[in-house]
Specification:
- The relative contact order is 0.21.
- The chain has one domain (33-344): Orthogonal Bundle (ABC transporter involved in vitamin B12 uptake, BtuC), CATH 1.10.3470.
- The chain has helices at residues 15-18, 24-29, 34-50, 60-82, 90-108, 112-137, 141-164, 178-185, 198-216, 218-228, 230-235, 240-266, 277-287, 299-318, 326-350, and strands at 188-191, 194-197.
- It is mainly alpha-helical.
- It comes from Micromonospora globispora.
- InterPro entries: ABC_transp_permease.
């Protein structure tokens, strides 16, 4: 995977290229997800020791479900951060997707699947708009997506109240197509004592696909290149514009997938849902090894960061601790993860 002069479109060498020829131990310690892996093991052992319900195999499904609802969005957010950008609208975009499918189908009497497809178009359009506006204006993605965040938050609340007279969408469980759609987006499977939600499967598939694309394809090299130095990447033939817009569209697609689960898990969507979750997605990505400066990170690490959240959220309750401390945990983990990521990157660059 080392970039050469005969492959200008692959851009500059990525983090994976720079460690490819080092000894195995050095390569493992240079991986951006090493910190999140160690943290996940420590947290797992901690709650295994202090929380008896955490040791119950039947609760594995609950822990993985909590992790998967974060991980589905943490993976594309990590890709976007590696590409050097942020999306602060990711949390409310999930709600927008669920509301779009529900309100369009209910208000116009459509088959639920038509609402689902229209919601996909809306979600992808939001992502494409974020990317287009970023490149058109040259504004930081922080400001662009912060604006989108407030726009979507207002639209979610205003349109829902206008159409339903309430702050939640109507129950669509009796509409045509609901049962088949629920099998795709809200089903579960029981394996012995463990019940796994369909989101766990989607989370694993997204992680595998994203990791393969990032580390084994030319498009993955482009992501690292535009995040490391967009001007240099453009100079060697990397399609910077298409890459950045594509990353925002990926966030939009996963927001649609997450929004469909939200809708078909509960049959209705609260219009105020999703506010604040964008920070959880970003923190999961940072815990997983992504730097805020771009050009470095791991989607596997982001999924480990989501797993850490899943274990911690339930572990605190299982241990009988005050859940108010969870926000403190988020802040501490963000600071520690940033320091560890910088240390690991420095060591990787020196070797």
């Amino acid at each position: 995977m080392t970039a050469t002069a005969t492959e200008p479109s692959r851009g500059v060498a990525t983090q994976d290229d720079r460690v490819a020829t080092r000894p195995l131990a050095a390569r493992l310690l240079s991986r951006p997800e090493v910190g999140s892996l160690i943290a996940a093991i420590v947290i797992f052992l901690l709650f295994m020791a202090v929380a008896e319900p955490f040791r119950n195999v039947a609760n594995v499904g609950t822990i993985l479900y909590g992790a998967s609802t974060i991980g589905i969005m943490a993976v594309p957010v990590a890709l976007l951060m590696i590409g050097g950008e942020f999306d602060l609208s990711a949390g409310v975009a999930v709600t927008t997707s669920g509301l779009s499918a529900s309100l369009l189908a209910w208000n116009f009497g459509l088959n639920v699947w038509v609402g689902i497809l229209l919601a996909l178009a809306v979600s992808v359009a939001i992502g494409a708009f974020n990317g287009w506006l970023l490149l058109k204006t040259g504004l930081p993605s922080f400001l662009v997506t912060l604006g989108t965040f407030f726009i979507l938050q207002g639209v979610n609340l205003g349109v829902t109240r206008l159409l339903t007279g309430n702050v939640a969408s109507a129950d669509i469980s009796d509409m045509d197509g609901f049962a088949s759609a629920q099998n795709i987006f809200g089903s579960e499977v029981t394996l012995g004592p463990v019940t796994l939600k369909i989101t766990v499967l989607y989370w694993v598939l997204l992680t595998v696909i994203a990791a393969y694309v990032l580390l084994r394809t030319r498009a993955g090299n482009w992501v690292f290149a535009v995040g490391g130095d967009a001007a240099a990447a453009r100079a060697v033939g990397v399609p910077v514009r298409a890459t950045k817009i594509g990353l925002f569209v990926a966030v939009g697609f996963c927001a649609w997938l997450s929004g469909m689960h939200l809708l078909f898990q509960f049959n209705t969507v609260q219009s105020g849902e999703g506010v604040g979750k964008e920070f959880i997605f970003i923190i999961a990505a940072v815990i997983g090894g992504c730097l805020l400066t771009g050009g470095y990170g791991s989607v596997v690490g982001a999924s480990l960061g989501a797993l850490i959240f899943g274990m911690t959220q339930l572990g605190i309750n299982y241990a009988g601790w005050n859940p108010d401390w969870f926000r403190t945990f988020l802040g501490v983990m963000l600071l520690l993860a940033t320091l560890v990521n910088m240390y690991v990157k420095r060591r990787a660059d020196l070797r």
